[in-house]
Design a protein that fits this description.
The complex is a heterodimer of chains A (about 300) and B (about 650).
Chain A lengths: L6 H8 L12 E22 L11 H7 L3 E10 L1 E7 L2 H4 L2 H20 L3 E8 L2 E3 L5 E2 L1 H10 L24 E7 L7 H10 L3 E8 L1 H4 L5 E7 L11 E5 L1 H24 L3 E6 L4 H11 L5
Chain B lengths: L14 H11 L5 E5 L3 H37 L3 E2 L10 E7 L15 H19 L4 E7 L4 E7 L4 H10 L9 H14 L4 E6 L10 E5 L7 E13 L2 E12 L1 E15 L4 E14 L5 E9 L18 E7 L10 E5 L4 E9 L5 H12 L4 E8 L12 E5 L4 H4 L7 E5 L12 E14 L1 E2 L15 E10 L5 E7 L2 E9 L2 E6 L11 H14 L8 E3 L3 E4 L5 E6 L2 E5 L4 E4 L4 E8 L7 E8 L29 E2 L1 H23 L1
Parallel strand pairs in B: 3-4, 3-6, 6-7, 15-16, 15-17, 17-18, 18-24, 25-31
Antiparallel strand pairs in B: 2-32, 4-5, 8-9, 9-12, 10-11, 10-13, 13-14, 19-21, 20-22, 22-23, 23-24, 26-29, 27-28, 27-30, 30-31
Helix pairs in contact in B: 2-9, 6-8
Classes of the chains: A alpha/beta (about 300), B alpha/beta (about 650).
């Protein structure tokens, strides 16, 4: 699998940064300003001295003018952890362009993170388990090393979103991005609830292939689910596909996406549904900016 | 048995089996297609099925309802009729009124209305044939039951037609003109060119354009005085004939009414009487009528100067009027029979007499005095009871030795509280011993019989009974019981009628209302009044009863015998009918006579009808040619059932 990203694309991304919530606490040493006061050099506010405060932080000039003790407060900037969960099930790899699109989107998110000194980790969901092949990535060198290995990622079995809560993650320390087609009966909502419980910022990103958005097949078909056991699987559907059925499918897909969006809205979670026909860079610049995920 | 096919072509229906096979064999073949996920498609299928299920359910219901409706229609055996225009030649239908009023004779021309109607019909038929060579003629005689004299005859049958008209006679009955015109109207249904002519003296309203009513009355030369009825009653102890006389037409004069009474009897012996009563009529307008009621009283003078003379009975009274110009002579004479009431003689013999029997029969005599003359004779000590000449013989406790071995054979015997001496009477029943019941015990009835109708057995209480044993072939039927012991038994054969009451009236409360009802049943069951009236109108149907075994009804030498009663008889002729009752008992035959006169309405010379029907000429007549389409219904039903099966099948898939 070849990455679509080239130097020009990364140059474009250089101008962007992920827009994290200011309520996150993260780690020391990052570039993301948060609501709390810290030890940076950028002035934020004054506060009246209270017993126990560090007297070194008293503004003596102000004391000279007003005769009262005030502390000088500075902003705080933190490092965030971006966890990118990629659905590597058969359904995501069934159409190569869809698989490539998902990987590229994940890489883009990763780059936006490392560029701002944030930590990145990729979590691959396949065969019912969660794999973290690259570990915690900090810095561009490590990131590009991981990106090179992403070409070897395979898509197998089913993605088990409900198993995500089994792996402990940090609290209030960053962003969780879930990239999947969500064409599954698996309880992915459980994973979202877990992220929110851990006070993570969450972005749900649905990727749908061209054939999934607008099927081109027709006639009397025995539709076999690629994640199933083949003929006789209960997920298979015997159906006579006509033009009206295609229209019904599109309406139903709209309802399906709307249901995911409704869930995300109810959890105050960002949701993005994209098709593979749209280039990734456009998605980054248009869709993510529109949803205020990047700035 | 041989199996045959009335419609072998029906086997073509077996093709349906081939269709069924094809449907099964040509099931859709589905091609496999791997896709990334079927989640959305499954949702589509579920939603579509849900929508289709709703439509499918409605369709299945409609189809099932249609199948049931077709089956119901099939049971109603529908037939398909088509309407055709029938272009036939003209028809002429004549309706001749043959009622008794058509016998009215004109004083000017001395011919009757019926004769004028026949002549008029003949003229019209001749004229019809002169205008239509292919037309047909029918003639309906409207008497009590309208019938065709001839039907659909054409010009070739003219001799036959005129010959039939010559022999035609007017009836004495009431004409059923309504049915006759309705019958003629049926010709219009098959031929819209039919013309109907009704020759009658009855005035009709508008009967429609197809009907011509020809009035055959001669109003200015017709008048009639009629005896419409006569009832016999008593006014201040005198026999009175209440006459109802009717005058129709232009009658302004005096008329004499004669009453001839045969065998009038006041107890001194029968004699014949002749009474004459003048009556004045003043009807000046034609087509008018006047009805008078007059009482004919037998005065002292007419009875030979005997001031207190009146008669109880008479055999026959003939009432007649004398009117020389009378149009209908058939209603000028009237006979009244039935002055003689049924005589019922009762003999009561008891060694310990009680007054209940006397009292009961006296009450009955008062209540039935209009129809019956009941005489009660009690045998006192020292008298010998009679064994002949009575209708009822009541022996209480015992029977005198003189009668015991020669029981009466001409009446009904009642044995009340009999003792063992009666065992020698050879009745087939023996009386054993008296049993005290200790307290008042009430009766029960296990069978229904006219003798016990209206009786309430639970209100008849006894304290002592006599046990009886009945021989096997004695024909006694138990009617009432006390504790399974019979307390009223009846033997009712043509030659012997015996009622046994094995208990003492004195030892019971059977003496009040229930006793009176029993006596009423006794008389009405064995000696019913044969006829309820002594005169009837022609065409009347009466119900009559029999005191004996058979009744022979005789009129003008023709006799008919009846043995099942109550029987019905319809009077078809004017005059006297004799009803002769024959008894199985050794009694003389009883003769009753009734007089049958013209129907009152027929004396009216100017009758009117309220018959309303519109017989307009019709443009289209329907011809019925029913076509059975049961087969088509069956096919439709089969097709619908296939559709229903297909819908169900599709849903299951």
């Amino acid at each position: 699998m070849k990455s679509r990203f080239d130097d020009a694309f990364f140059d474009k991304l250089e101008r962007l940064a992920l827009n994290f919530s200011t309520t996150l606490t993260g780690y020391f040493g990052g570039k993301h300003r948060i609501d709390k006061y810290g030890q940076t050099v950028e002035f934020a506010d004054f506060r009246q001295y209270q017993p126990g405060d560090d007297i070194r932080r008293i503004d003596w000039n102000l004391f000279a003018r007003l005769g009262k003790h005030f502390l000088k407060l500075y902003t705080d900037e933190r490092q965030m952890h971006v966890r990118i969960y990629i659905d590597c099930s058969n359904s995501m790899g069934f159409y190569p362009d869809k698989a490539e699109f998902a990987i590229n989107l994940a890489v883009a998110f990763g780059y936006l993170a490392v560029r701002n000194n944030d930590k990145v980790s990729f979590h691959l969901l396949k065969n019912g388990v969660e794999i973290d092949p690259f570990g915690l990535i900090v810095g561009k060198n490590s990131f590009f090393g991981a990106v090179a290995k992403m070409e070897d990622v395979t898509f197998e079995g089913e993605a088990n979103f409900a198993g995500i809560p089994n792996v402990q993650i940090g609290v209030n320390d960053g962003l969780a991005v879930v990239i999947s087609d969500f064409l599954t009966e698996n309880n992915w909502q459980k994973a979202v609830d877990y992220f929110l419980f851990q006070k993570q910022q969450v972005l749900i990103c649905q990727v749908l292939g061209r054939e999934e958005v607008s099927p081109t097949y027709s006639g009397k078909l025995d539709l076999v689910d690629c994640e199933g056991t083949g003929k006789g699987d209960e997920r298979n559907v015997q159906i006579s596909i006509t033009r009206s059925m295609i229209d019904a499918y599109k309406k139903e897909l709209g309802r399906f996406v709307a249901q995911i969006r409704k869930f995300c809205v109810s959890r105050d979670t960002a949701f993005l549904s994209v098709g593979t026909t749209v280039p990734v860079d456009k998605i980054i610049y248009r869709e993510l900016a529109r949803y205020d995920i990047v700035r | 048995m041989i199996l045959r096919w009335l419609l072998p072509v029906g086997f073509v229906g077996l093709v349906a089996i081939a269709i069924l096979l094809v449907v099964y064999l040509l099931r859709p073949q589905y091609r496999q297609k791997r896709i990334s996920g079927t989640v959305v498609w499954k949702r589509v299928v579920l939603r579509t099925k849900k929508q289709r299920l709703m439509v499918s359910n409605i369709l299945i219901f409609l189809v099932q309802a249609l199948v049931l409706a077709i089956i119901a229609v099939g049971f109603a055996e529908p037939r398909l009729y088509s309407q055709k225009q029938i272009a036939g030649e003209g028809e002429y239908v004549v309706v001749l009124d043959a009622s008794a009023s058509m016998r009215a004779k004109s004083s000017a021309s001395s011919d009757t209305r019926f004769e004028r109607a026949v002549a008029g019909a003949k003229r019209e038929i001749e004229e019809f044939f002169s205008q239509s060579d292919d037309g047909t003629v029918s003639l309906i005689v409207a008497d009590a039951e309208p019938t065709y004299l001839f039907s659909d005859l054409n010009k070739d049958d003219e001799d036959k037609i005129y010959g039939a008209l010559q022999t035609l006679e007017c009836s004495l009955e009431v004409a059923n003109l309504d049915d006759a015109i309705t019958l003629a109207g049926k010709h219009l249904e098959s031929n819209p060119h039919t013309k109907i002519a009704v020759f009658t003296d009855t005035e009709f309203g508008n009967l429609g354009s197809a009907v011509e009513v020809v009035d055959v009355c001669d109003n200015s030369h017709e008048q009639n005085i009629a005896i419409l009825g006569c009832t016999v009653g008593r006014v201040q102890n005198q026999f009175v004939f209440e006459l109802v006389l009717g005058a129709y037409g232009n009658v302004t004069r005096k008329c004499n009414v004669f009453v001839d009474i045969k065998n009038a009897d006041n107890g001194d012996g029968p004699r014949d009487l002749h009474l004459e009563v003048p009556v004045n009529f003043s009807v000046s307008e034609n087509s008018s009528e006047q009805v008078q009621r007059i009482s004919v009283v037998a005065t002292d003078e007419q009875f030979g100067g005997q001031a207190d003379w009146f008669f109880d009975d008479y055999e026959q009274a003939e009432i007649s009027i004398q009117n020389l110009e009378d149009a209908i002579p058939d209603d000028d004479r009237f006979l009244v029979y039935g002055g003689i009431r049924d005589k019922i003689n009762v003999e009561y013999c008891s060694e310990k007499p009680n007054g209940f029997w006397q009292l009961g029969f006296d009450n009955l005599a008062n209540n039935m005095s209009k129809t019956r003359d009941i005489t009660f004779r009690e045998i006192f000590d020292g008298e010998e009871p009679q064994n002949a000449g009575f209708d009822f013989y009541i022996f209480e406790h015992s029977i005198p030795t003189g009668v015991l071995h020669s029981l009466p054979k001409d009446g009904i015997i009642l044995l009340v509280d009999p003792d063992a001496t009666l065992n020698d009477a050879g009745l087939g029943i023996s009386f054993e011993k008296k049993v005290s019941l200790g307290q008042l015990t009430h009766c029960t009835a296990k069978v229904e019989h006219p003798l016990t109708q209206y009786l309430q057995p639970e209100r008849i209480g006894l304290t002592e009974i006599c046990q009886v044993s009945v021989e096997e072939n004695s024909l006694f039927q138990p009617l009432l019981f006390v504790d399974d012991n019979p307390v009223m038994l009846l033997k009712d054969t043509p030659s012997s009628k015996v009622i046994v009451m094995p208990f003492s009236i004195n030892m019971s409360d059977f003496y009040g209302e229930q006793f009176q009802i029993f006596l009423y049943n006794l008389v009405n069951n064995f000696l019913p009044v044969t006829l309820t009236s002594s005169d009837f109108e022609l065409g009347d149907t009466t119900q009559f009863y029999c005191k004996g075994e058979t009744i022979e009804v005789e009129h003008n030498g023709n006799a008919e015998t009846f043995s099942q009663f109550p029987a019905q008889f319809t009077f078809r002729d004017v005059g006297t009918y004799t009803f002769t009752t024959t008894f199985g008992l050794e009694k003389q035959d009883e003769v009753r006579r009734v007089y049958v006169h013209l129907a009152t309405q027929e004396s009216n010379l100017f009758p009117q009808s309220d018959f309303r029907i519109n017989l307009d000429s019709k443009e289209v007549a329907s011809q019925l040619n029913g076509q059975d389409f049961f087969v088509w219904l069956a096919v439709a039903s089969l097709v619908l059932m296939m559709i229903e099966w297909f819908l169900q099948f599709k849903y299951i898939l």
